[in-house]
């Protein structure tokens, strides 16, 4: 058969695949709270910190609340980040008043006690103030001074009570998280399979998708269009990354370790570039309050349902593409044995280039959905999730696309379900612990083959 | 003119600061892992956290003295290395990278837990005055302040000569240890493993055991780095997170992996160049154009780019030998 026509056909298929992924992404728009840390303050000899975390009555972090600080000679304003954290740094010890702007609370949430608290701040030390929220207007207490500690305790114990309805809700959230993770980890796995590179900058590709969607949403005012543009831009970024950076480096025959460190450098560069352009606060794609729908006892935002549907379609499209198209077969051939693939006439560089485009597009789509489902994201959102992507890919078996999907679903479930029994700040840790435990028993991952070891 | 004198002074201050020494210590450990043995440890900050909290919690919560606390910190680092090494050292290199980075994050999330507020201080960490006294009371220096080369610090206290002496003493000690070990038969086996593991195995050496020993040794050095970092300041979970690991890699590669003095040179350069960048930008670029925060962010962007350029164009670093680093993990 004619080589050229073969090549052209696989290119058309690849483009078609992209187009499908792009179109799917247009269908998806929505709002959730994202894991990340931005609100930070480190006390030293000339700085004192005031900080705290605000959680919604559901236990999810409350992002984007306006918090203000007044006292001594300072007056500051901030917003809670995607983890619900807020922090102020002050340069003078003294008593400060911290207040939450009640107007910035989401609908249906009330402050359980006073909206403002006095805090004693010392230099080289940290102080905190709690603002418990409730969804029951009757539970709002008269402002009391010294009940902070008690409330913190009660809110913690309520988080650990088990019920089947709660389990079911968390289970569906787990599926949602798993689907979002698998978007990004599919790309990571494809790149790893074809080039051997563990791409530490994959998280930043996710962040970029979300931030661009926010930018485009502001420019165009249409979420669907913004999402599509963000995914296309992310795919373009994947293409450019390969052309400008990775392909020349492959030509120079850098070792895998060196490539990995280059990706770390890229990740640092991108993170701080995001901070430079978008600031370190929470960026929201959709500023309106998301509507929720209850299906079969599970309450999620409309955006969540759309995100789950579109993610699933995109994943299926990539899966079918890998199985049945010429390009997909070429990708799998390269994953199996690059030298043999090259010898049998596959244009390895072109396939890898398309893999980068798909990887970028999927990561961008994941970023858009992270931003929508968790109601905002910041410069470090992808960085926080990066380890989840790695855990998913390693768990499923390095370099197997199907394994990446299964691994992602397990990790997603793990993250959301452990939330029922363990404190919320441990949810990512348990997923990583599971990874280490499984590697102890089955080092090649669930679907990996033995020959990939050692 | 004043600006330049001040700048020189702060360069000297930065080069001598305990934080710089802490990064040297952790980078020496990382160099034992990666430079000499070829292990991709992406969680050196986890070892630092283990060391720092092992020490700090022993003193502030269990009320132990300096030496027992130090012993616990070292033991904790050894156990941590063992836990990481058992599942991964038989696998390909990137497994170790992913497992170490995950484990380091687990440690960070665990010490940050609000439930452990009484033990580790939760997200706010342990203030220095809770564990520093056991260290300062060992000080042989007399009371008062001393000025050397225009740098004035208290002899013993929070920002003091005693901590600097201890920190740089440890650096000298570990540099010597590394130098002695790497020219010993043991070190030659490590380098052999880095170049060709199968060859070493065919000579009847257990590559697994040697890698494990190297992982433990470098981990203990990392733990000392964590202790030194926490001594003059406070124990902060987020001060030893993933960015710290990445900076350590930068430091090691800058100075030169698989060299003895690479980590020392790398660390001093890393901190001094960052200081130069931000203070020059602060002095000569008007605040309306770039706020100090943005200068900081730009400095980080430059760090990221220089890491890429360094690995691409001079992977052996300043002091390194290219032939020594042509291995693949």
UniProtKB/TrEMBL annotation, chain B:
<feature type="transmembrane region" description="Helical">
    <location>
        <begin position="214"/>
        <end position="234"/>
    </location>
</feature>
<dbReference type="InterPro" id="IPR043428">
    <property type="entry name" value="LivM-like"/>
</dbReference>
<feature type="transmembrane region" description="Helical">
    <location>
        <begin position="46"/>
        <end position="64"/>
    </location>
</feature>
<protein>
    <submittedName>
        <fullName>Branched-chain amino acid ABC transporter permease</fullName>
    </submittedName>
</protein>
<feature type="transmembrane region" description="Helical">
    <location>
        <begin position="20"/>
        <end position="39"/>
    </location>
</feature>
<feature type="transmembrane region" description="Helical">
    <location>
        <begin position="298"/>
        <end position="319"/>
    </location>
</feature>
<keyword id="KW-0472">Membrane</keyword>
<dbReference type="InterPro" id="IPR001851">
    <property type="entry name" value="ABC_transp_permease"/>
</dbReference>
<feature type="transmembrane region" description="Helical">
    <location>
        <begin position="96"/>
        <end position="115"/>
    </location>
</feature>
<feature type="transmembrane region" description="Helical">
    <location>
        <begin position="70"/>
        <end position="89"/>
    </location>
</feature>
<dbReference type="Pfam" id="PF02653">
    <property type="entry name" value="BPD_transp_2"/>
</dbReference>
<feature type="transmembrane region" description="Helical">
    <location>
        <begin position="246"/>
        <end position="277"/>
    </location>
</feature>
<feature type="transmembrane region" description="Helical">
    <location>
        <begin position="161"/>
        <end position="182"/>
    </location>
</feature>
<dbReference type="GO" id="GO:0015658">
    <property type="term" value="F:branched-chain amino acid transmembrane transporter activity"/>
</dbReference>
<keyword id="KW-0812">Transmembrane</keyword>
<dbReference type="GO" id="GO:0005886">
    <property type="term" value="C:plasma membrane"/>
</dbReference>
<keyword id="KW-1133">Transmembrane helix</keyword>
<keyword id="KW-1003">Cell membrane</keyword>
